[in-house]
Amino acid sequence: MTQSPEWNLLSRTCPSRTSLARIANKWTAMVVIALGAGRLRFGDLRTTVDGISGKVLTETLRDLERDGLIRRQAFAEIPPRVEYELTPLGQTLHAPLQALGAWALEHTAEVLVARESYDSDQ
Asked: Which of 16, 24, 58, 60 sits at 20 to 30 Å (Cα–Cα) from 49?
């Protein structure tokens, strides 16, 4: 039986760092939160995640698919239809990112006050 390696997020050579960098990306978090409601088409995702460009959304979706967090399903129709949904692994990420989003909404006013105070002291 092989023993699983000891991952250390603080080590520069640990592959877990790439996963953390991916999920810490604001667009990744927003796409995962959006897909938590269910399967969406590209255009619907782009509308839901306000402000994301088509290029960045495409790159984000490819990265998430590569990491096994989303599933892309293409339908042989005219016009072509492609839908995206969270995989079981992606669903495990949804709750923590949803919690971070809720924290951001809950503490927005406090953060804005802190920024204003900091900026006025500089």
From this structure: 16
